Request: fold
Amino acid sequence: MDICSAASTFLTDSLELELGTEWCKPPCFSCAFDNRGGKHFSGESYLSSGALKRLILNLDPLPTNFEEDTVEIFGIQWVTETALVNSSRVLFHLFRQQLYNLETLLQASCDFGKISTLHCKADDIRQQCVTFLHYVKVFIFRYLKVQNAESHVPVHPYEALEAQLPSMLVDELHGLLLYVGHLSELRSINPGAYENQNQIKLFPPSWHLLHLHLDIHWLVLEILQMLGEKFKQVVYGHQFMNLAGDNLTNVSLFEEHCENLLFDLIYLSLNRYDKVRPSEALMSHHCPCPCFKELWVLLIHLLDHRSKRSLSESFWNWLNKLLKALFETSSDQRRPSMPVIQPRDPLGFSWWIITHVASFYQFDRHGAPDETRQMESNWSFVEELLKKSINVQDGILEEQLRMYLHCCLTLCDFWEPNIAVVTILWEYYSKNLNSSFSTSWHPLKGLTNIIKSPLCMLEMVKTCCCDKQDYNLCKSRSSYTIFLSILAKVVKKAMKNNGPHPWKQVKGRIYSKFHQKRMEELTEVGLQNFFNLFLLLAAVADVEDVASHVLDLLNFLKPAFKTSSLIWKGQAAFLLMYTQKNLDIGALAEKFSGAFQEKAKEFLVSKNDEMGQRHTLWILLSIYIDGVQEVFETSHCLHASHEKLLNDGFSMLLRACQESELRTVLNFLQAVLARIRNMHQQLSRELQKENVDLNVQSSLSAKERHLAAVASALWKHFFSFLKSQRMSQTVPLPQLADAAADFTLLAMAMPSTAPSDIQPQPVLSMIQLFGWDDIIWPQVVARYLSHCLQNSMLCEALSQSGCVSFQALTVRSWIRCILQMYIKDLYVADDLFIDRNSEQAVEKDYMEQLAELTRLLFKLSEVKNIFAKSQVECLPILEDPKKALIRFFEAVGVTYRNLQELSDKSAMVTKSLEYLGEILKYIKPYLGKKISSAGLQLTYSVMGILVKSWAQIFATSKAQRLLFRIIDCLLLPHLVLQQEKELPAPMLTAIQKSLPLFLQGMCVACCQSQNPNAYLNQLLGNVTGQYIGRFLPASPQLLDLEQHPVLLALRNSATGAPMSQLKKCIVQVIRKSYLESKGFSLPPRLASILAFMLQLFRETDIDISDVELLLPGVLKCLVLVSEFQVKRLATENLEYMVRACQAGSGGEAAARLTSVFRDFIQDYGMRYDYQIYSILEAVAALDQQVVIHLISTLTQSLKDSEQKWGFGRNTKQRKAYSKLLSHLGQVGQDEIQRLENGDI
Reply:
């Protein structure tokens, strides 16, 4: 079957194909097919099988069927060549009987269990009926002979019967049609199906009955058509007469049946239309299933084929007559055979059905869509519909009108252009131009208050001119914009076919409706509709002619409307259209820019309290700005007239703008600058090409001049303002940086256009102004330099320009940007800092900007070289600018230490100082009265790393002065020197964390200094002295002292030798500030300092010189203080010192220790003899030799004491002395014996 169907599709118009004797299933209506492959009709259909084509070409209907001698019809074998002549009435009776059997199946219950059986029975009945009707067609074509009526030769009885067959067929077909009735009278039209487990569709009997009715109605038309073709004359029926009393003929039956069939199709469609919303009309099809669609296509082809041979009217005439009947209200005007129909919306239904039926003309005789096929139009009837549709007296609704015009637009797409349609519609809309054409339940995209820009107006026009329309048109567009789409489509099609003449017709019709009085009558909505109309005309026809006419008409507006934002939007839209069509905008630009300059001046002089006036002016100005930006962005090349768009209005506007308004203007500036640079690049490439034609060369040179003129205008009207706002907060900082960077790139591309005040090196001047100047906001600098460093050509140009410090100065600015990240205001001291959680203290955008700048900066050759020489890893820390800065300082320090040549070291020192610049100025705001915890932490940590990492650099004479200033500024400010005042807690915390770094760096600098510097040693001592006491804990807990920053400096130092200087300073400070006191007074916080000393001795090696300095103070504490904690700590210190001297070299340490004790005995022996003996007992337990060497001094002290008091021997003192001597071995025993013998 499929092979036969496919083969029949390719039958030629003049050739019969021999397809063998295999039985091929006759075509029939079927919607049981898979339409996923784009198929519109079943392979068994009359279209796909080629049946329609064979009918029209008068070919054998079924060349492979009914070729046997006998044929089975309704289960009975018949002689193929004579059955219809001999038994026509019997066969038609059997046909009606089978039809009755099918109708009886409708009464059966159609549940899922019985559907398979019912489907098979119904399908078998249907196939028998369809086969019989196809047999009738084949019999007429092959076997029925045309009798000669004028012949008097006796005829065979069979021939006599055969002569009567045509009339009998007319009678039987008429009877059959009366039996089946109207298609619209079927009880239920439901093409639904069941599916079994094998995905096979099973249809109920109602489906088979419906499709059999379709087959009957169509095959009757085929049989009647073939009768007419066979006999070439009218065939009269014998049994019936028509309603007019005339004999029934094949022609009258054909026309009557065709009319009834079209009526039924209309009636069924009308039932579907009553359930459709106007806004969804074209999305809702009028055919219940594809078979009805196929029937429409078959009727179209058959009726149009007959009309070409003057046998009947065309399909559209048939349909028009029936649709006109819908509007007839009197019953006497209707045909008696026609049921009465009262449609609720005959206009809408007529539009709907005509539009859908018109789409069927795309299908050819095989049912395949053919876009090149000429579609017959029905404009005459549509014009009548259109006039009825816009009849104002009937009060047509906007929603309905949209649907009508949507249908009309679709028909314009199908058919040839018709200017009359535009004329009819324009008569209506020209009178209603002030209407908004809106409905409360359908919000539109095209209302006046929604159109925000000229570009939106052009987009609306572009949408109206689009060839493919949206099916949701009724919801998204007003009837007026749909009219504009019709206008565009008709004019474009007409001009394509007939040249400019149709445009002149339309132009005359439209222009004639606008005069001074009409323009004065326009409202805001009317003005919007006015612009939409003329923009569309400009888009599809002559833009210059239309624009000129619009400018003339705008002069007729009321004075109140002349400053309307709509007029500015409209002018900007025309300006954009000129640009898109690559036309010179001179005439429009001059007038539009002049109006802009006037409004900018008004905006400048308007007072801030006149907010209403400013707002009104700003709306107009912003329309101009957006329009001009779009002009530059869409221009393929610049003309001399583009310069006119950039006038003094911008200079005045910039001075008057507030922050939000400035954002808009600067966005415009950036967009134009980017476009100018892009166009210059393209032009440069064109100019560099070889063998360029002279005319082309001249054109390119002109373009270059125009480009330079526009660039000069930008410098003139924008740059001076930006330059004046470098230190202001009025301009949004990111946009200030972006605009400055764009101007820098423009200066690189077109240096001659830059103003004289930044010549002769405009690029270098720009970077000095916005990238290297220390008074510029760090946010601006970071963003600006990021833009510059991203441009490799700019970096290369600067490197080759003789600016040897380009990279160093950029590094300096980067350092400043990081150090000042917590500064909120550079100039207002009362609101200086962002002081929140340090992780949240800096805006995310700025941190991302710093990270980007860091990433770019680390790609500079100078920076890469430093890291390469130092072998310091830099990649993992680029996302954290602070860590990156620290790593950079470390890399510089390592690089310097690795240098060998003196000249290299000197150059490195100079370069390093260039990196830092006035670094103390960068951090000075943090050290004022207003405190920023995060800022202080950043300052002290970074500067501590700097001092430590660059210690050897700071040891040089070039850098020592900076080190002095850093120490004085950060560690020894005036506030620190005032002992009675407490340091702010955030500052004290920051110093505590960073002090070890500073001390370590200072020690290295002291040791590495090229010239011994007493001031540097003094600074080290002062810092040590200040902060030993400030960080002493309140209670002498050794665990707390472990974190003392001074001790941390000693503990964490990687270099031992340089730190001895710090230790000496510590010892000197302790002795001078805490252990030395006048007379017998005690120093403050004695326990804490003793604990500090003890921790110092535990973590470092004790030198005898340290013992000589500290031991007298410790011994004094033991003598004078009775507090247990002090005594305990002093004793522990004493033990550490004695043990240290024991471990010392040779006897020198012991001798010097003995000397300290001897001096102590001489100073305190007369008054504190018992305490001294106790102390020495403890010393003797550690080192007897030290005390033994003191026996003579002790004995002399005893004698001096007894002599002084004059009481003779002091028995108690001698006893205490003897106790001490008893711990000294034999030497002590000998001395005791002398005491007892009285030798002393």
About this structure: Residues 694-724 form the longest helix (31 residues). Residues 256-329+339-367 form one domain.
